[in-house]
Amino acid sequence: MRNFRFAVILALFSLLTFGCNDVNENNLGYTYAQFNALKFGESKVKSTIKMPNKLSEIPITEAMAGFLKNFDIISIQEVSTGPWGAKAVVKLLDTLNSQGASWDYLLSDPTQGAGSERFVTIFRKDKFEAIHNKSALLKELDNGVDREPFHSVLKDKKTGKYIQIYSFHLQPKNKDPKEELRFIGNGLNAFEKQNVIVSGDFNLGHKDTDVIFEKVFGFTHQFEEKTSLKTKVVNGNYKLNEFDNIYTSTEIVILGKGILDFVSIVGNLNEARKISDHLIPWIRFELK
């Protein structure tokens, strides 16, 4: 009975939040997604997941591609530093490429501090060009943060303008990510100022991250919603903390935004957590 009630709640929630999951409500501008993919490596390649309307389980990377294929740019954190991290990225790209559009990626080096990981920025090749010699971890910050943010630079093929993307994963809540945030605030000169998108899993709510990214950097937060997932459903609620966000500079004009709630799509929290313990905030934007 409990599982039935949860399924009913999810079905109703999916209907109520369809606009948040419906990335394709119009074709204006570009779409950008923020995604902490939770230990993106061997388990994502080798494991399978139960999906509605599927007779058998499918690979997790196939399920992920189904959620991500409608975006133009995706910033992913928690890519494994071992060989399976790069393999998982390639597997995801192969699956995306098999669904019509052509994709490419920028993969960071491993970060240098505790909890080392890699970042990847995935993008549509028909819309953007990677600027490889300008994309790298921000080494200027490696003395004050465990995981240096990844700076990706993409060239918009339509306008010739450059988009500056910064992907973050601050240290866990119990290690005081505010300390890292203060250090980042002192490194303002390491960041570009125009056509900037900052996103990540900050392990902090927007009121804390606004202190740096809005008051010091002059960017604007796009979300005030819980995005991390609980380990079990409590009174119909499975969202835990407001950890993931996207910040934009004034040249990034927001046309729409939402949170892709794949739990409501999968229909089962335990199965959905095989994909990640974070939902996917996204924006639709154009360049001023």
Describe the structure.
The chain has nine helices and 17 strands. A hairpin with an 8-residue loop joins strand 2 (48-49) and strand 3. It is α+β, with helices and mostly antiparallel strands and 288 residues long. The chain has a single domain (2-287), classed as Deoxyribonuclease I, Chain A. The strands form four sheets. Strands 7, 8, 9, 10, 11, 12 and 15 form a seven-stranded mixed β-sheet that branches. The protein has a six-stranded mixed β-sheet with strand order 5-6-4-1-17-16. Strands 2-3 form a two-stranded antiparallel sheet.
Gross morphology: globular
Name the beta content range: 25-35%
What is the name of the CATH architecture? 4-Layer Sandwich
Query: How many β-strand stretches?
Result: 17
CATH C-level category: Alpha Beta
The residue ranges in which pLDDT falls below 50 over 5 or more consecutive positions are 3-19
Q: Can you give me a brief rundown of this structure?
A:
The protein is an alpha+beta fold. Helix content is 26%, strand content 32%.
Task: Give a topology summary.
Elements: H1 2-16, H2 18-21, E1 30-40, H3 42-46, E2 48-49, E3 58-59, H4 60-68, E4 73-79, H5 83-97, E5 103-107, E6 118-124, E7 128-130, E8 136-137, E9 150-156, E10 162-169, H6 177-185, E11 196-201, H7 206-213, E12 220-221, E13 229-234, E14 237-239, E15 244-248, E16 252-260, H8 262-266, H9 269-272, E17 280-287
Parallel strand pairs: 1-4, 10-11
Antiparallel strand pairs: 1-17, 2-3, 4-6, 5-6, 7-9, 8-9, 9-10, 11-15, 12-15, 13-14, 16-17
Helix pairs in contact: 4-5, 6-7
